[in-house]
Amino acid sequence: MRRDIVHEGARQLTYEIREIVAVAHRLQALGVEITWENIGDPVQKGERIPQWIKDIMVKLVSEDTTYGYVATQGIPDTRRFLAEEVNKRGGCRVTMDDIVFFNGLGDAVAKIFGFLRREARVIGPSPAYSTHSSAEAAHSGYEHLTYELNPAKNWMPDLDDLDNKIKYNDSIAGMLLINPDNPTGAVYPRRLLEQIVDIAKRHKVFIMCDEIYTHIVYNGAETAHLSEVIGDVPGIALRGISKELPWPGARCGWLEVFNQDKYPAFRQYIQSLINAKMLEVCSTSLPQFAIPLIIGDVRYLEHLTARRDMFEARANEAWEILSKVEGTIVVKPQGAFYMTVLFADGVLNNRQHLPIADSKVARFITDSVRDVPIDKRFVYYLLGATGVCVVPLTGFCCDKKGFRVTLLETDDEKRRWTWHTIAENIQKYLASA
C-alpha cells in the first residue's frame, strides 16, 4: 500500500486472557480435554441465573418498547435510578446527566482512552487488567505506565511509587484503580482510597475506578465506592451488570461521572465521549430497561449476599490448597472472583518441564515455549500436561512471575480437582530441573 495504515499503538493491543484460548484450541484438536480457567464468565462455568431475574426478562422481551432505540446516554428513568443509588451512599452527588451507558465496559474503556488527548497518559496498576492497559498503551503509542501492587502487603498499591511517578511525569493526567482488583482479588480499604484521592488532588489529575466487582467483597474486607471518597476531584467510576447478575452477554456498562460541573476541561472531555456515543445512536436497550427492575427488587440484596458467601468459600478453598505449595506466594482473595498465584523469586527457569505422554502434544508445547516468559512457559506445560488453562501473570503488564485462576467453577468435584491438579503439577515442574 502507498501509505502505512497501521495505528502506532496497534502493537500494544494484547489480551493474554483470550490469546491463550488459541493455544488451548490447538491442543483440543490434538485430543487434550481443556479445563477453562482463563476467563471471568460465570455463566460459562455453570452459574444459574435466578428464576425471578429470568421472569423479569421474559416480561421485558414481550414489550415492544424494548426493541427500539433509546436516548444516547441511556434510558432517562434508568439513569435517574442509578443516580439516586449513588446519592444514597453519601459523598459526591450526581444527576442523571452524570450517568452514561455503553455496550459493556470494553466499549467504555475504548472510548475513554480513544478520545483522551494523545499526550495525556493514565497510570494504572501492575499487575494490570489487559483491557485497560492495552487501551491506554494503544492510545499513547507507548508501553502502559504502571504503579506497583505489593503482594507482601495483600496486593495493596505502593502509594510512594504512585505519588513519585505522577510527580515526576507531567504527561500523567489521570490514574486508574481497579477495586476489587482483577487479577489479584485485592480490596482497597476506605483509608487507602482516601490517600489515593489526596494524591490525585495534590497533582491535579483525574481518577478512574473500575468498580465492576464492587458488590463481590468478602473475607471481612470493607471498602468504599469512589463517589464516597472523591470529594471535589474529577473522576469516573466504571460499573456494569456482567459480573453481578451475572449477565456478561448483555454487554451493558455505564460511567458514573463526578465533579464535571467543577472542571470545564473535564466536562468537555466527558461530552466528547457522549458525542462519540451519539454517532452509534445508543447502547443496547434491553439490559437498560432491566436494571431498575432487578437492582430495585427486594430480592437483589439476598442475591448479592449469596454470591459473596459462595465466592468467599471458593476463595478459601483454593487458598488452602495452593498456598501450601512450596515455591509459591498466594494472598487470600477478598473480592472479585480471581486469585493470583505468585512464584517466589528464582524458583523458575527455562529448563523445567512437565511430562506429556502424547508426542504430538509434547512437540507442540516444546515449540511453543521458545522465547516466552518463564511463567508463561509453566502455563503452557500445565496446559499440555493437564488441560488446565490459566493466564500467566506477565500477561497482565507485570514483571512478576505467576498466574491467575478464577473461582467460578460450579462443579465442586471438578473445582477441587483443578486446585489439586495445579498444586501437584507446580511441585512436579519446580522439581524437574
Percent in helix: 40-55%
In CATH, the topology of the largest domain is named: Aspartate Aminotransferase, domain 2
- What fraction strand? 5-15%
The helix/strand class is alpha/beta
Largest sheet: 8 strands, mixed
Average pLDDT works out at 93
Radius of gyration over all CA atoms, rounded? 22 Å
CATH top level of the largest domain is Alpha Beta
- What global shape is seen? globular
What does it look like?
With 433 residues, the chain is of the alpha/beta class. It has 2 domains: 10-47 and 301-431, Aspartate Aminotransferase, domain 1; 51-295, Type I PLP-dependent aspartate aminotransferase-like (Major domain) (Aspartate Aminotransferase, domain 2, 3-Layer(aba) Sandwich). The chain is built from 14 helices and 14 strands. It has helices at residues 16-29, 51-61, 76-88, 104-114, 130-140, 159-167, 190-203, 226-229, 264-278, 286-295, 299-322, 359-368, 374-386, 412-431, and strands at residues 35-36, 99-102, 121-126, 146-150, 156-157, 172-178, 206-210, 235-240, 253-258, 328-330, 338-343, 388-389, 391-392, 402-406. The chain is globular.
